[in-house]
Specification:
flat; 708 residues; 7-stranded mixed beta sheet; alpha/beta; 8-stranded antiparallel beta sheet; single chain
Amino acid sequence: MLTPAALSAIAAPRRIAIVGASRDPNKLSGKPVRYLSTFGYSGEIVPVTRSATMVQGYPARSSLSERDEIDLAIVAVPAEEVAGALSMCVSAGVRAAVVFAGGFGELGERGSANQATLTEVAGIGPGGMRVLGPNCLGFLRGATGVTATFGSVLDEFDLLEGDTALLTQSGGFGSAVLGAANAAGVGCSWWVSTGNEFDVSLSEIMEALVEQEDVARLLVCSEGIKDGPAFVRAARRAKELGKPIVMLKAARSALGARVAASHTGALANSNAVFEGVARQLGIVTVRSLEQLLDVGRGLIAHPHGSNGPTTIVTVSGGAGVIAVDASADHELELADWSTDWQATMAAGLPTQASVGNPMDVTATTGAEALGHALRTAVAYPRTGAVVALLANRRQDERSRSELLVDVQLSTAKPLIVSWTGSSDLLSTSLADRGVVAYSDPSRAIGVAAALAQVGENAGAAGETVVRPRQRSRPDSLKWVVRADGSRLLRDDSSRALLAFYGIDTPSEMDIANEEDACVAAQKLGFPVVLKARSTEVLHRSSAGLVRPGLTDEASLRAAVRELQVALPEVVMGAGTLVLQEQVPGGVELLVGATEDRTFGMTMVVASGGVFAELIDDAQTFLPPISAEHAASLVRRLRALQVRPPGPSLDALIDTAARAVSRISLLVADNAHEVTEADFNPIILTTTLLGESRAVAVDWLLLAQRAVD
């Protein structure tokens, strides 16, 4: 986390030194001096160079000392000179520095020597001087005129004022994004390029900027997250403050991840993990720069998003079809119109119009009918936002624009426009008056979906994880060391731990021979399942260590003999045979946990059984989560989507959600010991009394490191 002192040195430095400053205002090392002067920086500019006594009208120094009281140093020297320059800055008491040069860790082996010289500089990092970069284009903050960059994009336009923070890891692309944002009408109060993040990470910048009064939203281009805990803190704080984060995550593919590593040195994260974590944290993720800026424009007009399903009003059936498909892609809920409101809508439309959703008012509809459709749509109580799909009609573009503005002024609900074939200046003129417009129905729907997510985040209460009623917790966890050195939680410990968290498991009994098995079966009741409990083979079903559906003593005795003969000691390890009650069949889920190198303990819930092999619909999250949150994830699983809706399905989902929440609590509470967990399957079933039950039939808990 950036300390207040370090953040102050970046946000509002009193004195800025440019190390390696050039007299040529067009050179890389000369541009920062020119930009600071041009963009109104009011503090002291201190060029540092041995080649001149004056630089662009400012007295130059040959070196820095503590007497200079420098807050921020812009280091504009070649890679081989960076370590020396940073060492001088640390000795002079500089609080923060920006390094432009590339040629470090982002080059892998080729840059390792230069990277090593940076790590040898004492006094850099938390508690010392913070360094942005290397291999970055720096940053700017409009309010203070701090332009610590050499990006030539600043020569190409006047910066728009605004309250958006634009953050990128890439330098060159980041500069282009700033230009694109400016052209799209997204004014930025901050722009930061973090480069290869030798010290200060993108996550730390996010965490710092979310607290700034001149930041209302963050648009982020990331190639990989290096500091997961700071990222999570930033996102949660942004959600608390109502400041949306919109993120374009590159390096989603394996090839993209390799390219990212060679570009900024980014540590690529599993895209599935990132998407799940982002969704949980309320981050809006997008797939393109166009969509990033589209959503940015939408949030400038509607900072709090939308509240409720969307209604589509279109003048073209074809555009409506495109919009419906895009709604499905974005999982955007469309409003269900009641019969009486459909009648109200139809009363002001031509007879050939359709009053479903989308509302197709037809291409020949005049301004009066279109106005009726839009005003009725925003008045409908179940509508949270309206998407208007228009086309051509340049001859009455002005009158229709006035209509759109009037409708938007009449309501707090977002009106999002797609106007295909309009004049080039239309979207700008509408945006200036509070109406966001795009050229493609899919783009408008993407913005509507983002606004719906932002509104949902704003209305969501903080997660409350309910602990099950108090039971006696095991005094200590007992582990078995496996052949590979990892540790498996002993069955008696794991069963006691699951019971403590209220996680349902089948009744079972250890057995040594056929006679034990028959006695146990009489107590448990047929049918039963025979399993070999092995410390070396973790996935018993695939290894043939499970015999389900044993309905009588003959089949049970045969199964015992078969497993005893078939399993050598090397497979069993410290295992035994165990007899379990047969849990009635039902929907099978998988819940797992593992240590992610970025986010720590990360969990998934997925369809189990045959679905686990056929489909990929795992939902990823950080533990612990509430039962309400777990239910939202479980509902997304296709194993449950294929079941008919109704009270029985709702009851199963609620039961599954409680189990998932309790497992997540177990994982979070015991993350200091448990590094991997696997509950597969959890069977969702209904008892003879009609009660829903979620039973963890098989599970394992592992520790890869020594347990204190």
